[in-house]
């Protein structure tokens, strides 16, 4: 019933939607379960295996009645080149008008020239290929008119969800904008997507290692332009808002996966997940073999189910790190 409702909402008239409400008495609109997809780093695909990336996107489009939206955690490209952005754009064009999407920009999606990873915050190529007015469900962006940071709205029945997609190493001024945006929508649940946030051991980015945004060229920036790592982002943004429910990130190699459940300032739980299957991750093949995350949110049963699936292989990963459930989530 849930999937049919979402299909009707997108493609049928208001009259038929009202009929569905009339016959669906067992589950209120506020409690309907829904699914969305998280796309981990696609950088190896657009550089070496575009057929896998395009297959992922076509599978998503073919399942438009099932998925409410799709989120990309960043490192869309490997070298921030026009050739790679063209492939990336072709993939997202497949979703256009079918599955709403949002994405974060990673360290490989910015830089002064091809192959320079976050030595500067130059995102001119990304913005040239993805004008902000091409992105459906967009409520606001920062800086205005650019895709560096996006606020998108997704309605599932009467549930109100927003996604904040934040740049690699969000700047102090970006965090100030994000805090303001969340405060303006207290009746919405929020998902935060940012490229670098969580380690594979389930801890937040901090310390001295080379994964941190401050260890790239952008780390020299100060004041409002200064970047923030995962720990700083938690302290300055995520823990402050009880309506932030989930955080998704990529970037990290080793096992490429991790989870963390933390309590915010108001006693709310925040479900944080790392997923990355790119080249360099332990045991990966062909840049990830098309594996992505399917997230099912079930407010009525207070669950978040996470599955890892490859449309390319038509296979699920069954190990505990890739197939798990959060219980007693207190979602609404």
Descriptive tags:
Purple Acid Phosphatase, chain A, domain 2; 8 helices; 7-stranded mixed sheet; 14 strands; disordered N terminus; alpha/beta
Structure description:
Mean pLDDT is 92; it is low at 1-27. The protein is of the alpha/beta class and 332 residues long. The chain contains eight helices and 14 strands. The longest helix has 14 residues, at 82-95. α4 (50-62) runs parallel beside α5 (82-95). The protein has helices at 2-11, 14-23, 43-48, 50-62, 82-95, 124-129, 172-184, 230-236, and strands at 34-39, 67-72, 101-103, 138-142, 149-156, 159-166, 189-194, 244-249, 257-263, 269-275, 292-298, 303-310, 315-317, 324-327. The protein starts with a helix and ends in a 5-residue tail after the last strand. The strands form two sheets. Strands 1, 2, 3, 11, 12, 13 and 14 form a seven-stranded mixed sheet that branches. Strands 4-5-6-7-8-10-9 form a seven-stranded mixed sheet, with helices on one face. The protein folds into two domains: 1-32, no CATH class; 35-327, Metallo-dependent phosphatases (Purple Acid Phosphatase, chain A, domain 2, 4-Layer Sandwich).
